[in-house]
Amino acid sequence: MKDRSLVRAFSLIAHVDHGKSTLADRILQVCKAVPEREMREQYLDRMDLERERGITIKAQAIRLQYPAKDGKTYELNLIDTPGHVDFSYEVSRSLAACDGVILLVDAAQGIEAQTLANLYLAIEAGLEVIPAVNKIDLPAADPERVSAELSSLIGIDPGSVLRVSGKTGAGVVELLEEVIRRVPSPKGAPEDPTRALIFDSTYDNYRGVVSFVRVLDGELTARQKVKMMATGSLHELEEVGVFAPTMMPVKKLEAGDVGYAIPGVKNVREAKVGDTITDAARPADEPLHGYREPKPMVWAGLYPTDGDQYADLRDALDKLRLNDAAFVYEPETSQALGFGFRCGFLGLLHMDIVRERLEREFDLDLLITVPSVAYEVVRVTGEVISVHNPAEMPDPAAIQEIREPLAAAMIITPKEFLGTLMELCQERRGEMKEMHYLSEDRVEIRYHLPLAEMIVDFFDQLKSRTRGYGSLDYEAIGYRPEDLVKVEILLHGEPVDAFSSIVHKERAYTYGRKMVEKLRELVPRQMFDVAVQASIGSRIIARETIRARRKDVLAKCYGGDITRKRKLLEKQKAGKRRMKQVGSVEIPQEAFMAALRLDDKK
How far out from the chain centre does Cα 35 lie? Predict the structure, then answer.
């Protein structure tokens, strides 16, 4: 049995682009975990999408052997986490598999919104926090100022904040020594009944579900009969192993170890992230604390462009859900788009990443509808229902009130951009709650904003107005009643559910006008005039007409009697009138896709 006093499990947390993945590369090199010829930048970012965008999307675990200055070799279990607000659920799950964290802050940019959010997650989890200032090699670096900000935030001496450079490797050894000194060794007992927390999973086409686990008590071995405590299902472990840095089988995982287990599960619903694995013969009395269920912020419809791919899309969503526990979905049907799924995401970046992963990893061609949020509708009977899709909205006569979701937004910005950001928040119907200075030139402001006003382009506007220096973190905090209406788009008198939207009454006309103008350009001309209308209930608020294509019925008349020409024109007019009564307008897929990409600022 190994000496568990030499084991450490820790995580890297920071705001996006503060250098976590680069620092992880240097730690791998210090521990000689990867041969030099195989080393590459962002080594732990396995997905092509992560490397292309330069961001971490999935948390990655790795086991390292570090020869410390005290002459002992320590086993370090490192987890590199994402930094973007949309992937904060990924961070919270990773922290459950750790005993301590390194909180990184960029020496040039200082404390950002997600720095604070991740710090609060670590404190809530009761973890040891080691603050460090990264990128000290940059010309614009000001480690003194950033150390002072960090010390006032955490309540420590500025001199105890470590200074490192993920690029040059300066200070990395001192950082690892601090991890060994301050992060506690695992507390679990090997002789207790087995309890292992599933903190992530992936799907292998040949071996089924691969569960990433942290063993808290007991041990896991190959061929061991285990029980999933949440689902109650029994399985036999095919293999257990560690990431060193690739998957490497081992005889057993002991208390305190981070690794993987392959339970031979083909049905992805039987291996939930957050579940506890225990020994079937000697089960534990109670499971480990799992995770709070994530609350989707943004909802959108996901449809295959080819209806025959519906079953493939369902299977792909099942497998992706295993790898991304924050993503939820349920089947839905649209009159215009056919069979698809209503999907919930943590934000627009999360939505974009999920769509791109589905298209790349599962070879699907998808259409995604306009993103919306979930509203609460109070019927006149007093019943409260949740509406994720504008098409589900009841008749206006049956509605007593509509409540929209609110978000508590935390914005950190240089003080010179304070005025323009406050103006942006006021435009989006925001309500200011508090403001305080983190340092002489950096301000933290907190607003309550309607979530619907934030999901489209709020983040882009914030970045452009602050020249990239502003940062945002937000969380849903409940609902409030508002004067909201459902705007429907009618094509030739028929509502097109894919274009319906719930907007504030003051902005309904602008949205309707923008949508009908866009569709007038995109829908092909028919042999008869087609009305494109925006309506609230039975009231039309905007209209455009797609003019008919004109066939020249007089082309065959060379001269001759005027009554002959008039007769042909009257016959054409009667035919068009009849066609208008019975004709239907087909919207091509390209028109849907272009209209759904409408730059909707409402």
Answer: 34
Task: Name the residue type at position 71.
Answer: G
Tokens 């056919």, residue located: 338
Q: What's the confidence (pLDDT) of residue 49? A: 57
Residue 392 belongs to some domain of the structure: no
pLDDT of 509-527, one tens digit each? 888 888 888 888 877 777 6
Task: Provide the 8-state DSSP code for 395.
Answer: P
Here the CATH number for the domain that contains residue 564 is: 3.30.70.2570
Q: What is the pLDDT of residues 146-189, one digit of tens each?
A: 888 888 777 778 778 888 887 888 888 888 888 898 888 888 77
Q: Report DSSP state, residue 158.
A: G
Angle 298-304-307 (CA atoms, 0-180°, nearest 5)?
Answer: 140
| b/e per residue 335-370 (b: at least 16 CB within 10 A) | ebbeebbbbbbbbbbbbebbbbbbeeebebebbbbb
Distance, in Å, from the CA atom of 445 to the CA atom of 433, rounded to the nearest integer, reads 8
Cβ neighbours, 10 Å, residue 239: 16
- Cβ within 8 Å of residue 38, ≥6 positions away: none
Residues 115, 200, single domain; the answer is no
The reply to whether 290 falls in a domain is no
Domains of the chain: total: 5
C-alpha 560/C-alpha 500 separation (Å) is 52
> Do residue 166 and residue 204 come from a single domain?
no
Q: How far apart are CA 279 and CA 225, in angstroms?
A: 6
Residue in 418, 506, 500, 505 with CA at minimum distance from that of residue 462: 418
Look up the CATH number of the domain holding residue 366.
Answer: 3.30.70.870
Q: Which domain holds residue 446?
A: 397-482
Asked whether residue 294 is assigned to any structural domain, the reply reads: no
Q: Which residues of the chain have pLDDT under 50?
A: 580-583, 598-602
pLDDT in tens, 308-334: 888 899 988 888 887 776 778 888 887
Q: At what angle do helices 348-362 and 310-323 cross, to 10 degrees?
A: 120
Instruction: Give the strand pairing for 128-134 and 162-163.
Output: parallel
3-class state of residue 575 by DSSP: helix
3-state secondary structure of 298: strand
Say how many C-beta atoms besides its own lie within 10 A of residue 195's C-beta: 23
C-alpha 499/C-alpha 280 separation (Å) is: 52
User: 93 with 166, same domain?
Assistant: yes
The sign of the dihedral angle between the CA atoms of 296, 299, 305, 307 is positive
For residue 243, the tally of other CB atoms under 10 A from its CB is 21
Query: What is the distance between the alpha carbons of residues 454 and 447, in angstroms, rounded to a whole number?
Result: 12
Alpha-carbon distance 257 to 98, whole Å?
10
Q: Is residue 379 part of a domain?
A: no
The residue whose two tokens read 């309607």 is: 450
Is omega for the bond preceding 245 within 30 degrees of 0, making it cis?
Answer: yes
> Looking up tokens 């990655």, which residue turns up?
60
Q: Please name the residues in contact with 352: beta carbons below 8 A apart, sequence gap of 6 or more.
A: none
State how far Cα 65 lies from the chain centre: 33
Does residue 477 sit in the same domain as residue 497?
no
The structure tokens listed for 406 are 């609110």
The 3-state secondary structure of 61-74 reads EEEEEEECCCCCEE
Confidence (pLDDT) at 291: 61
- State whether 458 and 576 are in the same domain: no
Asked if 43 and 164 sit in the same domain, the reply is yes
